[in-house]
Amino acid sequence: MNLIIPKDYKPALDIRQTQEAIKYIRDTFQDELGRELKLQRISAPLFVTRSSGLNDDLNGSEEPVHFTMTSQDGEEVQVVHSLAKWKRAALGRYGFGLHEGLYTNMNAIRKDEELDNLHSAYVDQWDWEKVIGRGERNVATLKEHVETIFKVIKHMEHEVWYKYPQAVHHLPDMIHFVTSEQLLDLYPDLTPKERENAITKELGCVFVMKIGAVMRDGQKHDGRAPDYDDWDLNGDILFWYEPLQQALEISSMGIRVDEESLHRQLEAEGCLERESLPFHQAILNAKLPCTIGGGIGQSRLCMLLLGKAHVGEVQASLWPEEMHAACREAGIQLL
């Protein structure tokens, strides 16, 4: 069992107060995110057909929850891992224009997740996507959007402090940028996760860029599906999280693949057969807009702002009984 028990942990809010705070954070944050990034809230699916190619393949090894529907003539339907691809297709289908975008409340099941303080089989996040010009597919555009999201998170810290001063977890005042290769140069003897912990502990909050490709040491910093993020224009927002003494990822985001980067990344992963799928064909034939997008963990954000020790304190999911028992003994109140 992978479980960290912080020393002398005592939650500042009880379960009912926590539930109230969760609603406040979620309602307030999504409104501010939509306003700052000029995003419209839309509805999104819980499942998609396998043949559409719209599901997120994550690292390529996780099996989606799947089933068949009577009305679909036996076609396999998959519960989404995320909406990374679906959002881009929706922007084109709904006629969103340049610098317009959408966000949605995404719920997913990742049944193969290794459960611990930060990881659950139930995923809840704000998935967002925005149309950009082809000439805006660059690092400057990526950093601009990262800094905007950081600004919204910082503003939420102040909002939560005003309403729950006894509970708020204080955050650093700025975000730093570093590439996965730079982390390798800085910490050549550490694993990728250990590098993230080291740099985030030093700087407080970092955006680790360029994730997915093989680095000069022959390893990947982390896995990324080859058919949504451009591996040269993506990254993760990480906060140093003192209660657990480790980095806490709040968001994975990036500028999406174009025709060239899609083909190159599919080839690198040995899955060029995906080019025949409808979503991939639309990209290869330039029928979808250029976009930037990502996901922001709803429970992760609540956990970060409220100083919780376990994601199960801010979302209702399933956990092993031994984890329940250990958490009860430590005063960690799983929902």
Automatic annotation (TrEMBL):
<dbReference type="GO" id="GO:0070981">
    <property type="term" value="P:L-asparagine biosynthetic process"/>
</dbReference>
<keyword id="KW-0963">Cytoplasm</keyword>
<feature type="domain" description="Aminoacyl-transfer RNA synthetases class-II family profile">
    <location>
        <begin position="23"/>
        <end position="320"/>
    </location>
</feature>
<comment type="similarity">
    <text>Belongs to the class-II aminoacyl-tRNA synthetase family. AsnA subfamily.</text>
</comment>
<keyword id="KW-0067">ATP-binding</keyword>
<dbReference type="InterPro" id="IPR006195">
    <property type="entry name" value="aa-tRNA-synth_II"/>
</dbReference>
<dbReference type="Pfam" id="PF03590">
    <property type="entry name" value="AsnA"/>
</dbReference>
<comment type="pathway">
    <text>Amino-acid biosynthesis; L-asparagine biosynthesis; L-asparagine from L-aspartate (ammonia route): step 1/1.</text>
</comment>
<dbReference type="GO" id="GO:0005829">
    <property type="term" value="C:cytosol"/>
</dbReference>
<dbReference type="InterPro" id="IPR004618">
    <property type="entry name" value="AsnA"/>
</dbReference>
<keyword id="KW-0436">Ligase</keyword>
<protein>
    <recommendedName>
        <fullName>Aspartate--ammonia ligase</fullName>
        <ecNumber>6.3.1.1</ecNumber>
    </recommendedName>
</protein>
<keyword id="KW-0061">Asparagine biosynthesis</keyword>
<dbReference type="GO" id="GO:0140096">
    <property type="term" value="F:catalytic activity, acting on a protein"/>
</dbReference>
<dbReference type="InterPro" id="IPR045864">
    <property type="entry name" value="aa-tRNA-synth_II/BPL/LPL"/>
</dbReference>
<dbReference type="GO" id="GO:0004071">
    <property type="term" value="F:aspartate-ammonia ligase activity"/>
</dbReference>
<dbReference type="GO" id="GO:0005524">
    <property type="term" value="F:ATP binding"/>
</dbReference>
<keyword id="KW-0547">Nucleotide-binding</keyword>
<keyword id="KW-0028">Amino-acid biosynthesis</keyword>
<dbReference type="GO" id="GO:0016740">
    <property type="term" value="F:transferase activity"/>
</dbReference>
